[in-house]
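Data availability excerpt. The first of two example chains:
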Amino acid sequence: MSGTGTPPDAYERAAEAAAALAERTGVERHDVVVVLGSGWRTAAEQLGEASCAFPAADLPGFHAPTVEGHGGELRSIDVDGRRVLVALGRVHAYEGHGLADVVHGVRTAVLAGCRTVVLTNAAGGLGEGMSIGQPVLIADHLNLTGRSPLTGPTPDAAIGPRFPDMTDLYSARLRAMARELEPTLVEGVYAGMNGPQYETPAEIRMLQTLGADLVGMSTVHEAVAAHHMGAEVLAMSLVTNLAAGLGDSLDHEDVLSVAVTSADAMGSLLARLVRRL
């Protein structure tokens, strides 16, 4: 696997990609980036018609996802005067990418002007009462990957601090706004794991003891990288399966099926939320 943290030129590569994004889209600055996780593709349609759409891999430093359900496309959409960058899919560390590549998209978006980063994912539910198809706001996370995207040289002060505070990583303001729009939303703690294998029942019991409500293989590194650069982060999981030992056997096709079925409703919520930002 290539590097585990931030190589010396990571922010330069992100700045280069941000400049290329502005040239490709004809938009000088974007305001919000929305990263859509496994099976969320149809949710993008709820945000509106794209003025520009192209493979993310066309930009410097981006890689095409290899995981089914992650399309690897970028769209630029005008949502009531706010310019929204939508990433359909993401790359993961378990695909063999270093963390600098995993967070390259959000770093590029922040340098392109996005002060709000909305992250979505498909997750296993292990909190009491959670059900398949339920959206859950991420209020906090457990980074159990043993790695940080900030490992590496001290960043320039204009990028972010050496030791960023993670107390309000997942914006309380944005979570309150989401709950105003959808009062049935609940909050939970997301446990980020390396994957690509699903967890064992013993690991799920451990996560429950640690206070996790959700488990997945993405999001935590992107959230840390975006927050480090001063962006406000909102993250939402769609419970696509009950975690190991709590339901039926786990299969990626089933995960995608649930995500696709729920994507329209999730897209409607995201569209209403973006209009409030």
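And the second chain:
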Amino acid sequence: MSTRIVGALQGLRKPPRQARSKATVEAIIEAGARILAEVGWAAFTTNKVAETAGASVGSLYQYFPNKLSLIQAIRRRHLDDCLAALRRVDASGTHGQSLIAMWIDALIRTHSAHPRLHRILLDEAPNFEAFRDPNSVFETEYIQCYVRAVMTLRSDLQEAEAQLIAIVLSDALDGVVHNAARRGTLGSPELRQELIKLMTVYLMPSAGRASNSNVRNTAAHCR
């Protein structure tokens, strides 16, 4: 279990303003993600990160006051990637079961880039309680992405109903995806199909029944 830290999130010591400094910060975050995935939290050091990023330790500390602030930046980038992926699906104008398939693929893809990294962020690296705040800016926007998808698939719902369904659905899908990352099974086609089925049956029960009926009929025909 990762350590939970109560208190304010630690931001960058010095926000990058020029293109070169922004590139340095991005290189450090990317190197930090790679090192964390390779060696785990116990062996994670700023020296290794700086060397991998092609920067000096001094340059690293210009932006990140300590390892915790760097872990925070790595975790925040992952959250930003998740939001960006769902926004793209939301903006695609897709409807019905195609939307569900795109949604599941977006969740799996964003957690498959560095699956070992996600396991370490979940289970080893210290985690600020603020990241678990249900009223944080990230959580609010993340749930709103789900709300819009739910209302696209279920136009009969009021927004309050869609909000509750969105919370239940996001908790269910995130739980499965995060545990699959822990187990190393995110690439399983069977897992993808089960997640699509879960979302379909929950939001489009008639479509889910038709899909299951087609599968049963095909199986009976084969026998």
